[in-house]
Amino acid sequence: MTIRALVALATLTLVALPAPLASATGREAGYLSAHADVPLIPRDVIFGNPDKAGPQISPGGKHLSWLADVNGVMNVFVAPVGDLSKARAVTNDTNRNIRQYFWAYNDTHLLYIQDVGGDENWKVYAVEISSGAVRDLTPYETIAGPDGKPIILPSGQPLRPAARLIGTSERFPSEILVGLNNRNPQFHDVHRINIETGVSTLIAENNQWAAYIPDDDFNLRFAQRMTADGGTEIHTLLPDGTTVLFEKYGQEDSLTTGLGGFNKAGTSVYMQDSRNRNTGALYMVDLATGARTLLAEDARADAGGAIAHPTEKNIQAVSFTYGRTEWKILDNAIRPDFEFLAGVAPGQFSIGSRTLDDTKWVVTYLQDAGPVRYYLYERTPNSGKPGRATFLFTNRSKLEGLPLAPMQDLVIKSRDGLNLVSYLTVPLAADADRDGRPDKPVPMVLLVHGGPWARDNWGFNPYHQWLSNRGYAVLSVNFRGSTGFGKDFVNAGNLEWAGKMHDDLIDAVNWAVNEKIADKSKVAIMGGSYGGYATLVGLTFTPDVFACGVDIVGPSNIVTLLNTIPPYWAPMITMFTERVGDHRTEEGRKLLESRSPINFVDNIKKPLLIGQGANDPRVKQSESDQIVEVMRKKNIPVTYVLFPDEGHGFARPDNNMAFNAVTENFLAKNLGGRAQPVGEDLSKSTAQIKAGGDDIPGLTPGGR
Hints:
17% helix; 13 helices; globular; alpha+beta; single chain; nine-stranded mixed sheet; 31% strand
C-alpha cells in the first residue's frame, strides 16, 4: 500500500555502435570528439517498450503476470509460476499501452484500465485468463446534463465519464468497488461490480464527496471533502445514512495528512498525520476510543510506502525517502527476509506483490545505472529464516553492459537556507576519474519535475541516461512545493509559482556553475506539466540564464489553466486557489497574470521547443496554442510539435520517441552535444509540426 496514494485517494549484453552524429563545428566539434569512446545509445533502447515490466504474482500463487510488447503495444502476459516459457498474452490492446493492471482475488481474472487518446477518461476492464475474454466493466460513453441529454464539449465530442477504482477485497474475490461520474461529472458515485458477470449495483449516490474509504467488507466507512479554506474534512458514514465529523485539518496539513486502510477487524484505521509536527508520520487510530499509536516517523521525510500483511492487515514496514529510500521494520517476522533481500542484488528493493498465504513475493530492484531487476522470493513465514530468491528477468535487457552513468543524490542550499534534495548525472566521457564531477564544465540540462506536488527520486531515469549519453550533465531539483519532505517544505511553495519556486531552480543552476559542473553559457531548462511551465518561466522571467528550453504540456497562462480543469477536479479547486492563486477574484487574477509566461513573451530571446497532446485534460492544447500564436505574431521563433492522439504526456512509444528525436537534435543545435539523427522516428509517429522546425536537422517546417 502506498501512503501517499491513500492520502491523495491517485522500470544478453549489447554493445551499441555510435550512430552518426549531428553536424558540429568549432567548439562543439571539439567537445563531441571527447565523447567518441562512449557509444551513442540508440533512443529505442532507452525509450522503446521494455522487454517485460510490472510482474505480479496471482493471489493463489499459481500464475505470474507481466507487461510485454505485442506488435508495438504493451499487453498483459500470464505464465505458470514454474514455467515462464509457457507465457501467453491474455490481452490484445492494439492502440495504447496497458500501463496499470492487477490481479482479481478470484485468481482467474485480471483487471486493467485504459483511456482513449490520453483523455484520462478511464474504463475498467476484466480479462478471464483461461479464455482471454475481455469485459468492459464500465460501459458508459456519455454523461447526461440536467436536461437528460449528453453533455457536448466545445470540440463537438460528448463528455465521457472517468472511472476510478475505490476498493478490492479478498473477502469478495469476484467483486470490486468503482467510482463513476456518469451521472454528475463532478462527483463519482460508488458501484459494486461483479467482474465475472459485469453486473453493477449502485451503492452510493454522491453529490458532495471527493473520495470514499471502504473497509474489507465493502462498507463505505469514511468520506472526505475539501473545505472552503483549503482544508479537509473526513466524515464517518453511519448506517442510517447520516455522517459525523471524524477529522478536520487545515490546508497546511492537507498534502501530508490523510487516512490509509483498516486493520483486519476494521476497528482501527491507519493514518498519516503531520499535525503538531512537520513530517507526516504513520499512526494507528482506535475508532472506539480515538487513541493514537505512533508506528513510524522520520524527521526529514514523510512516510512514503507501507507494507501490510496480505490478510492480517498489520503494517510490517514503512519507507521514508529523503535522498534515497530507507525502510523501517515494524514486524520482526519479516526482518530476516529484508536482511536477506538487501544482499540479493544491487540497488533499492521493494515488494511488488505477495500471495495471500504470504509464501511468495515479487521483489523489484531499482538501480541508477542499469535495468530494473525482478526476483521471485519464496519464503517460509514465521520460521525466522530467510527464503530463496530466483531471478526472473530485467525490464530492459539491452541496457545491460551499456555505458550508463551513475546518479548522485545531493543537497543544494537555496538562497534562504532550504535544503533542496537533488539528483545529478554527469557524462561518463567528461568524468575521467569517476568522482561524480566533470573534468571541466559541460553543457547541462535542468530537468524539472511536474506536479508540482510530486518529487524527483534516485534510480534509473531514462532522461538522465539519455541526456548524459548525449554529453550533458543532468540536474533534477526538488524545489520548494515538492512533496515528501514535510509540510513546511511543501507549504513554502504556496503562491510561489514563478516566485521562490523558480528561485530554487536558479539557485541550483548557480550551484552547478560555481561547482564547475555546468558551462554557464550552455544550460537548458526542460520539463513536463509544471516542469513545462517552469521552462516557460525560465525563458520569460530569467531569459539570460538559459540557452534554450523544452516545454512539454506546460501551461502558459495560469488563469486559463484553472478555468479549464476537468470537471471532477472541481471539488478540489480550493487546493489550487490557495496554493497557486485564486482566478475567481480580481486580486487573485492579478497575481496569476503576473506569474503567467504568456504575459512576458517579449522577454523570450532563446530557442523554445514545445510539445503538446491534443487530448490533454489537465493542460489543454490551448495552453500551448496561445503562447505559440503570440510568439508568431511577434516574430519570435518557436518550434511546436502537436500529437493528435496524446494527452498529458506522450504515452505511445512511437510518439515519445519522435518528440525525443526532435528534442535531442534541438539540444545539439543549441548546447553543442551530440545527437542521433531524427531518421524515421518522426514518420512513425503522429507528430504534427505546427510551427518552426526549420533550424532542426531532420524536420520539415509545417509538416514532417
